[in-house]
Design a protein that fits this description.
The protein is mainly beta. Helices cover 12% and strands 41% of the residues. It has 4 domains: 89 residues, SH3 Domains (SH3 type barrels, Roll), CATH 2.30.30; 67 residues, SH3 type barrels, CATH 2.30.30.40; 82 residues, Roll (SH3 type barrels); 119 residues, no CATH class. The radius of gyration is 21 Å and the shape is globular. The N terminus is likely disordered.
């Protein structure tokens, strides 16, 4: 009964929040659809207790089966506002049919917690009831964002995680392993763990002979990317095919949070299908202040800027290819954009004739994009 009530609460919350239009300041509710990495572009995750797969986009459609909480579905048609056409691998068959959008999140962002005892709240305020104190390496699917909080799927219900929480996003994980570029193969069927040790929760089993992208060994355990997830394998169960190139961005040292704000540095962001966006980053000649400790790096700020610009203006990452990137960091009391925290301003520069084509202001404390503009907004 309790689980049924929790699932009902989640569905009601999703249906209400999905009807709220995100405002241009970056506050209020923003849907979690299409926030994840491009490797998840054709995926959806079930966030209710279960969802019925129907033969047509209607409650009158016959049931083809049901998918459970956490199941990953392949998205075949995402054009309808109420229903999504998917392919699902069930226990004894594969079916294609329609599911209610409010029961799933399409191309979701995921969070992997980096510290234990991370608080999860029942509402978007730290004064609300604590519904969980979560261990490190817990993976959460993001249903959306509300003000300065992630709305996440937790135990078949919803919970709120503060954006200042120390996490790896799925973008961070993808960038982390792209930087590592190590490879290993499993020597036998082996169970993965959510963290470096037998005490961490079990993850998916990996068949013998599976090649994996790996990161740096931690206490006899090797972080690897498997099914777009960060997992850990016992180093005795794998054979190294290609050592990692560098340790500057290892999980223990903070992944993508490495210092990268040197003026004139090249930064690289993923664009999917093996394509990357490479930018020559230069400091805005009109002024910038020294970056303060504990804030987003330039690469992280640029990633957030690209993600929100693509979502808000309906463009792809590849549409932002070929521009120069300029930036400024602001930490003084004066807030040109009304931010109370330090912030980055990221510009995509088209040269002297075009000037600034795209711009986003990114809160350096939590990654919120609170101002954005494009070519039709009068930039240039």
């Amino acid at each position: 009964m309790k689980k049924t009530v929790q699932a009902m609460i989640l569905v009601v919350l999703l249906s209400v929040l999905s009807a709220v239009q995100a405002d241009t300041t970056g506050y209020g509710y923003v849907s979690g659809d299409h926030q994840g990495t491009l490797s998840r572009a054709y995926e959806a995750v079930v966030v209710s207790k279960s969802v019925t797969i129907r033969s047509k986009a209607s409650y009158s459609g016959s049931s083809l089966g049901s998918a459970s909480n956490g199941d990953v579905l392949t998205v075949l048609d995402d054009s309808d506002r109420t229903w999504v056409y998917v392919r699902a691998k069930l226990k004894n068959k594969t079916v294609e049919g329609w599911v209610l959008r409010s029961y799933i999140v399409v191309q979701p962002l995921s969070l992997t917690l980096r510290k234990s005892n991370t608080p999860a709240y029942s509402a978007p305020t730290k004064a609300s009831k604590l519904v969980g104190s979560l261990p490190a390496y817990t993976r959460l699917e993001v249903l959306g964002t509300y003000d300065q909080y992630y709305v996440v799927s937790l135990r078949q219900a919803s919970a709120f995680i503060a954006m200042g929480t120390d996490v790896w996003t799925s973008w961070d994980v993808e960038n982390l392993f792209a930087a590592a570029s190590g490879a290993a193969v499993t020597t036998k069927k082996t169970k993965t763990r959510s963290g470096p040790g037998e005490s961490w929760a079990e993850g998916p089993s990996v068949a013998a002979g599976t090649e994996l992208t790996i990161s740096w060994e931690e206490d006899g355990w090797i972080p690897a990317l498997y099914d777009d997830q960060l997992v850990y394998l016992d180093s005795d169960d794998v054979r190294i095919l290609q050592p990692v190139r560098t340790k500057s961005a290892s999980p223990s040292s903070g992944g993508a949070r490495q210092e990268d704000t040197v003026n004139g540095q090249t930064i690289t962001l993923p664009a999917g299908d093996g394509v990357t966006l490479v930018y020559w980053a230069q400091e805005d000649p009109y002024g910038s202040e020294p970056r303060t400790s504990g804030t987003l790096s330039l690469t992280q700020a640029a990633e957030q800027a690209v993600r929100v610009l693509c979502q808000r203006y309906g463009i792809s990452r590849r549409d932002l290819k070929g521009y120069d990137l300029r930036y400024s960091f602001h930490s003084s009391a004066y807030r040109a954009y009304g931010s109370r925290d330090p912030y980055w301003v990221i510009y995509f520069w088209g040269g002297d004739e075009e000037g600034v084509v795209w711009m986003a202001a990114v809160n350096a404390a939590n990654g919120t994009v609170f101002e954005a503009s494009g070519p039709d907004d009068g930039n240039g």
